[in-house]
Amino acid sequence: MSPGKAAACRALVGLQWGDEGKGKLIDWLAAEARHVARFQGGHNAGHTVVVEGRKFVLHLLPSGVINEGCRCYIGQGVALDLAALLEEIEILRQGGVDCAGRLAVSPHCALVMPHHVQLDAAREQQAAGKIGTTLRGIGPAQEDRAARCAVRLGDVLAGAARIEASVAKANCQLAGLHGAPAADAAAIAAEIAKLAEQVKPYVADVPAELEAAAGRGEAILLEGAQGALLDIEQGSYPFVTSSSCLASGSAPGLGIDLRPEVIGVAKAYVTRVGMGALPTRIEGKEAEFLVEQGAEFGATTSRRRDVGWLDIPALRHALRLNACGSIALTKLDVLGLLERVKVCVAYRLDGERLASWPPSDRMLQRCEPEWIELPGWGALPDKVEAYDELPAACRDYVAKIEELAGARVEIVSCGPERGATLWRT
Question: Quick one: which residues bind Mg(2+) (predicted)?
């Protein structure tokens, strides 16, 4: 189904712990957009797009890149690994998707460099303080940004990079705290300079281009990575990512406030990878079934995702944080295959009923869910043209989510393919 009339600017963000299906929906919405901009995260995120049986896994490039009519942007809020970006561009080129002339990269992106990856790995090898990162170096690179000693792409191209200072800082921690080998500053500086020259043709003034596009009334999509429950400030801290995953992060991440209409993406159930609480966790055969049927393995690390029933307190929290106008609900085709499905409507903590998200992951770990139970709806039709064609039990499940979450489900996804998506209005 067509995504309908394009709004001037939409932001698509995750409402859970990531892996909600944002890549597929960005690709679908991009059919009627001229511009798609990624505003945060790094190549620790993985967005999967399936088009006519071909699978594309994107980590840095916006998911709209498969649509040849889209110009794509990587904003300054993205932690940029130059080698990973060039590899992704080449993989797409070999698959028949050419980025030439369609990609704009902000020179203000902070770079993820080899010593950041080394430091990330050294930390995760120690049990104390382990977060469960993707080992891509994103956290250490973002620490440099906050400490105002990051190396940005434009610095390298201008010959004013302070790579040696960044490596020296990392080496103090590698050797002093972790007993790990030191990084080679000269080798890293030479490598980064070479990679930056290859990326140079894509460098552009991202906020100026987006401002001009908005002035012309052209449709713009803003693509978030990860999800609200992984947000550095508002997520299940400390088991979070190192950037803001909220729609409000699009303004600093792109250098322009486009005041987008916000669509939040949620699975019909929840998943999580890495460390941290998952209060609605499913165990046993039902969990294995959802993992297998839903292909619940990370697009970046291939790690098996933990699965849980839909968590309404967490969903309400994420909706509020993002000021979402509507919900896009995915994986209905997977969840409905279970005979009965549960929904968490509240928590109990130390005997007290909590209808809202607790303020820390430590408290979340002690929460016990309060459930309601609904019937499954079986396999969905291979091709659904209208929302009313979905089974009644499936529509009842959607209606119950709307009632409990206080937001309308405007988009439903019934399968991995681009076309298996319905816009209700």
Answer: 19, 46
Q: What share of the chain is helix, strand, coil (3-state, %, to 5)?
A: 35, 20, 40
Q: Is residue 2 part of a domain?
A: no
302 is an annotated ligand-binding site residue = yes
Please enumerate in sequence order all residues whose Cβ is within 8 A of that of 268, keeping only pairs 6 or more positions apart, or say none. 310, 329, 330, 331, 332, 334, 335, 336, 397
Q: What is the pLDDT of residues 77-87, one digit of tens each?
A: 999 999 999 99
Is there a domain that residue 363 lies in? yes
Q: Name the domain boundary from 198, 215, 242.
A: 198
Task: Answer for the pair 204, 103: CB distance below 8 angstroms, yes or no.
Answer: no
Report whether 397 contacts 341 (CB < 8 A): yes
Instruction: Say whether 140 sits in a helix, a strand or coil.
Output: helix
Number of domains in the chain: 2
Catalytic residue status for 311: no
Query: For residue 1, what pLDDT is reported?
Result: 47
Last residue of a domain, one of 198, 221, 249: 198
Is 382 among the catalytic positions? no
Point out the catalytic residue in the list 47, 59, 115, 116: 47
With contact defined as beta carbons under 8 Å apart, do 229 and 112 qualify? no
Check the annotation: does 308 bind a ligand.
no
